[in-house]
Amino acid sequence: MERFRRPTPLPTSLGGWIDTFGDGLLAGLDASARSEIKADAEAVAAPIHRRRDGTWVLDYVRLRFVATKPSMSPR
Question: Model-level pTM?
Answer without folding.
Answer: 0.73
